[in-house]
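Aim 2 progress update. The chain analyzed this quarter is reproduced below.
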Amino acid sequence: MADQPDRISLRGLRVHGYHGVYDFERADGQEFVIDVVLHLDTRAAAESDHIGDTVHYGHLADALVEVAVAKPVRLLETLAERLAAVCLSYSQVNACEVTVHKPQAPIPHAFTDVSVTISRSRP
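Predicted structure tokens:
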């Protein structure tokens, strides 16, 4: 069996953003929940036991929040793409999966969640 990539996951990162198609969403804002899974090789970090040899998930969370609360976008797809770019900005990361949840989406029916998930990797 081929080696599976190691993963670092950050799930349930909550931010108040102003993203959406409707003017009221962009004016009032709402909660978004971000999940990311980074694919990388953690062996160097395991060997050295040094944070510089892996992705510091506290710094990752800060960078994701900074992007998520910055310039509003209309589509979750656009936000997810921007967040994936943050994940891939770490040299150790080979690929990532990003899910953006919009639990208060303006849907006139009972629902639990709406989300968009994308997977991106280095060329």
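The CA atoms of residues 102 and 114 lie 5 Å apart. Strands lie at 6-17, 30-40, 93-101, 115-121. These observations will guide the mutagenesis experiments scheduled for the next reporting period.
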